[in-house]
## 1
Amino acid sequence: MTSIQMPQLGETIIEGTILKWLKQEGETVQADEPLFEISTDKVDTEVPSPVTGVVAKILVAEGETVAVGTRLAEIDSGDAGAVGAAAPGSSSAPTPAAPVAPVAAQLPDRGPRSQILSPLVRKLAEEHGVDLATVSGSGSGGRITKKDVMAAVASGGSAGATAPRLRAVPTPAVAGAGEEVVPMSHIRKAIASHMVGSLQTTARAWNMVEVNMEAVVRLRERSKEAFAAREGFNLTYTPFVTRAVTEALMDFPMVNAELRGEELIVRHTVNMGIAVSYEDGLIVPVVKGADTMNLVGIARAVNDLATRARAKKLLPDEVQGATFSITNPGPFGSIMSVPIINTPNTAILAFDAIEKRPVVIDDAIAIRHMVYISMSWDHRVIDGVLASQFLGRVKENLETWDFAEDLGL
């Protein structure tokens, strides 16, 4: 019998919520076949079975939040006494042990919400003086997450307020004629919390440049078939923009900085967040060490992360640690965007649809492939001059670089 445990899906992850069992008791599961879906504060993902066998017993129901190491199920694999962590990338199976109690059960009773709080959430609340009784949880079953606490901090929900914050009491939605009530998903709630928190904490400003993409478009057109044949996926414009932005960030590191309290953390490496849309909403996987990659390396990393994001196979560590973010609404027809900053980043860049437009070149009207590239940025960290200089460098890179050698074609 193989025991399946809650996996450690990242260094900072201490618990997870079972969203859905993909196999039920009595059903056969193959090794590496998805067994269940879990949710953490960072990402929702599928977890594969480490063995082939029959699901003998499910120990944790859908919707329950338990600690890393908690026994979740047992699979009759014909190997008595085996224990499997079912953790992607784990190096070895843990030693058989008694079931680990859920995090909430190990905490002292500190009120009606004590049974759905993780140690991380409680620690953050204590550090910032947040009264958890006034916080509405966005997690599964009303669980309060780290993002909920930080949103409360951003909105002034810390200790010392002259009056308690009023907590909205949810009422059942009533649909009228021609209306449909659709509950918000876990991901949709997380996005909402993060976006509202960003707007409440940043001094957002915005500017834009227009870029002549003619050289890039022509290079892509003549290279895309050979690239796809060699790499096994299509060459998009995202790697070109990411490469140009990464180089500009190395020359303007303040745009790549983070404000922590009253200190600025200035980074000289780039972890690029790439916004990916999928059926549940939007997620921002991170290309770690983008400054060490050429165009092809970035293309491979972006394709891998986007593919696994849409298949719900990302790990929590792959959606955190971004130093800058890029979003690309262009394929959906958008020609100009004002994105919300992906905090704690200082800025986010958007590139929209590439279109043929009439432009003036050498005092003559010409038709060129043009695109608007815009950036929302935090005025607490950088000013308009720096933002404009940075965007100017991105424009220069895209218009003047010879990417052909970088492609290796």
## 2
Amino acid sequence: MRLACFITPHGFGHAARSCAVLAEFKALLPELAIDLYTTVPEWFFADSLPGVKFDYFPVACDIGLVQRGPLEEDIPASVAALDRFWLAAPIAGLAEQLRARQTTLVLCDIAPLGLAAAAQAGIPSVLLENFTWEWIYRGYDNAALHRHADRLAALFELADLRIQCTPCCQPLAGAVSVPPISRRGRLGREATRRRLQLASEEKLVLVSLGGVDGGLDFLPALASRTPATFLLLGQEELGRLPANVRRLPKHSPFFHPDPIAAADLVLGKTGYSTVAEVYAAGTPFLCLSRAAFRESAVLERFVESNPPSRVVDGTMLSGPEAPDVVQQLLAAPAGASMRPNGATEAARWIGRLHSRYKH
């Protein structure tokens, strides 16, 4: 079997989710050959899938939304990028490549280009999603985005199997629903804390904004007033910071689920993979609301349904009450861990589809 994966490059979260499913699927089908079509960096997949061989094709397979920063979208730039992308979308060339490589199944994490190429090549396809861009675009009062939503709605309908991950934005009849999907940790909490050189009683706040730089104006004041170590993930350009703030680059020696499990609190935005990995670890989550992004309301409801986690407006972190809120969450007990991981169930559904078509 050769599986072609088209993964949106809108942040690293969708790549993380796809890697979780690929790891489980590879365990079920050791002879599986994997082709990756995306502009998410190749090192991300090498880190997330150790020992798994794959071929990587740097294909811009999706636009999603253009970001001004980690918590703000640029709608005019998004429309312009979508116009350019679909005017020159290489559907026919990708279909020919899929046939030439004897691809037997296509998996798309909200990247509709892969569904279009699979349909043209006559290859069955799977859509993995907790939202689709069609649904996101209709949440904005913008006629040009709505025209793109109409186009994408037809493409998303091409999938032979639709797997919806909890928390799902728009549950649909006929789709398969699975629990939250997350990558599995490797080191364990105590081993990770030792590697981070943390004292046993030291409190750790992990700050993750989905790999997008910026949005940390609140941090110097908050960290200076909070007796804890703050660990920033994926921030490349920062000014002078308090002594209790450390930084890990995007490509760090730590596997992202491990610092999440080692932390006493995660502070971050409502990205799917962060929400799912925090949920799996049972770590308290101080979640920054993204009111303008339609997915966020669904993720935020899920976060708040798993106390002691809570959702706050980003401006609160710059206010006088922020240290007290952080301290309350640092003192809260961790939630349940070892929760069901939807990656296993998703892999089994993909395997069933492959078995149906392989002859």
## 3
Amino acid sequence: MVALSSTNTIGVIGAGTMGIGVAQIAATHGHQVRLVDQNSEAIERSIKLMKKGLDKLVSRDRINIAERDAIVNRISSSSQLQDLSDCSLIVEAVVEDLKIKQGLFKQLEAICPYNTILATNTSSISITEIGAALKRPENFVGMHFFNPAPIMKLVEVISGKMTSKSIAETITNTATAWGKKVVQAKSTPGFIVNRVARPFYAESLRLLEEGVASAASIDAVIKESANFRMGPFELMDLIGNDVNYSVTKTVYKSYYQDQRFSPSILQKELVDGGLLGRKSGQGFYQYGDNVSQAIPDSSTSSYKPNAILIEGSLGIASNIVNIAKSYGISVNKSDGNGFIKCGDAVLSLTDGRTASRRAKENNTPNTILFDLMFDYEANPRIAIAAAIQASDKALEHAIGFFQALEKTVTVLQDTPGLCVMRTVCMLANEGADASYQGVCDVPSVDNAMVFGLNYPRGPLEWADQIGLAHVCRVLSNIKQAYGTDRYRTSLLLQQLRDANMGFYD
């Protein structure tokens, strides 16, 4: 099926942030838009905000005045659903309540022709369940935009059990024509983005609960080591801890209390205490004019290495060899199990074991583990953790080595998988399960996370770069450390590892 023509009228129900965003997108691409909301003040307020945003685009030479006026003039407003009777597509963006949505779409079926496409912007409610109340569920589809809709590239097109393939294709092609990056998925809890993203929050929450590092330190590592635009705690405060916690609870309940989606007791405490983030003035951080910014922990050392010994392969961290050489450090190589000998320190890339366990098993008490980085040359901060058995001098030498490479060093308490490696492997694990269970294909997982949440790299592509054998090893070792099913390895990951293949082979 082809995309809807610009001659097709688009209906939007709900004049909130998402509704006005969808209306602006459709109007920008030439459609007449009918915006319906029972609250006339909400419509007036949203259109005013849209005009303000369009004026900014004019000031930046992104559009001209005539284009701005044309977009505004294509949008008409109403408080009556009856005014949507001639729309080819109606997108609903109202409160996340199953009964309200079902009642609304039942009314629309009575008003609109049989071939009108009905779409919901829900982020969490089953498309199949909403459609079950309809006479024509084959015409019903999920069209999940991301906030702010005019800016964020991703649209998830979600098919319920009864959604017609041709309808899903029409919506896919229409969203593509509107300049969006579209991924198709079947209706499952969280769809793609809200499901695969859970570990980004969950692993950092667990690290904070265990006292591995402060919120500011974890955020700094995630941003400065791994190129995520925001740290998890900053992002949860921005979203609202109540909203983030609610989504996690919904996914957890929908998957019948699967441990992988377990909510955080720490986040529950914040929500119960009204510490919701930016909107309440305090969450993981405090906000206000006279509040000091939280500072991440950074460690320093006076040790300056002249030479290092590298035994075996460092895997994805192999570029450290060339980086060290570029800073005038002499590098010797030998066969071995993949570590760097620098002074008293024995440095290794984390494989999911704690440094203390690895020190015992390898009989190397001065073991210091370092974390995954997006780019070991370009990124400015690295996280490390020392075995409990390690000497203070060994830790000092490890810090000094990375300082010599001009890295800011954050020392974590010894923990399985450290911070970035653990997070990325769990993101890849969840993405692999989504693909294995037929929710979507492999490229859709990566596209969803990159274009929906601005991830620096798709988690499955990142897993390929780390090496699936190493990813599986990390997950297996973390699972053994905690003894919980939360870290079970996706069958697809295991199969690809055993076949010596990657996600994109």
## 4
Amino acid sequence: MESKYNFVLLEENEYDEWDLLVKESPQGTVFHESWWMKQNENHRIFGCRNVNGDLIAGFTCYEHRLYSTLKCLGNYVVGAYQGCIYKKAEGKYITILSFNRELSHAMANTIKDYCVTANIRMSPYEMTDVMSFIWAGFMTNVSYTHILDLKDMNAVWNGMDLDCRNSIRKAMKDGIYIDIECDFNQILILVKKTFQRQNKKITPNSWVDKSIIYNREAETLSRCRSFVAKTKDGVPIAVVYIIWDNKRGYYALSGYDHSNAHHGASSLALWTAIEYTRNELGLREFDFEGTMLQNLEPFFRQFGGKLTPYYSVSWIDRRLKPFLTLKWFMREMYGALTSKVRVSDE
């Protein structure tokens, strides 16, 4: 089916208009905004205009090359939402659904014409219909986040797990307090201690590795805040770092020093971040973005947010499938063989 909608790469002089669309769109998040996208030179923002020349839809992603020549599209920062956004529409549900589906169909075809592989994580906000992508030959995958409704903070507190509330109370009773004026380098020290305790390396070009760059711009725009839990002697124990847009706050980074452990420090830091999102920023939602991390999900769950699915869509040019499948098989075999060697050496 041929679509009357066309998606083209936007020029930087169109980014102000793009940001207005992101702000208005129900699917739009801070991760779609041009300031966020521009922190990586390989960003791509596609837009679609109506007959009057107004932006009505678009999608974001990052481009990399397979063997230096073949274009591939995907996400850059783990956990960040990309993908489709639509201009807020009025009318019957079926009318809006049909309109957005036609746009999604055009997006799917644009992606297939532009690259040989794609793997794009969608927003969880009013982006529940991916049938156009399925019909276009894309594979889909589901992930989850917890989203907390902040309209009534008393209801939020009462909806939390009892153990979580008791941990927060105990932290306050023990003199743990929250510092919101810490240098970002001090925050990264706590983040890196968490990686060290779990025997994990911070990989190059990962979110943690590049967070200094993103934080620098976020601070300039006054779009981020750190909440560092400290002992009454001023020793940092835990940190929660959030960013936000005009709709909600997003959990973005955390860290913990187990050598100065306190059971309620992380809970107090996160609860303070949630209160700040509602009381200081006036926002009505908090997204615990990162729920799919198995070691973090139980911690997030106890705050009472609504478990919310979101989708990823992926596509591989059929001419590449046999080659990429073989490449995957060889990589897995190599990993298995080297793993056996290490075990036997021990």
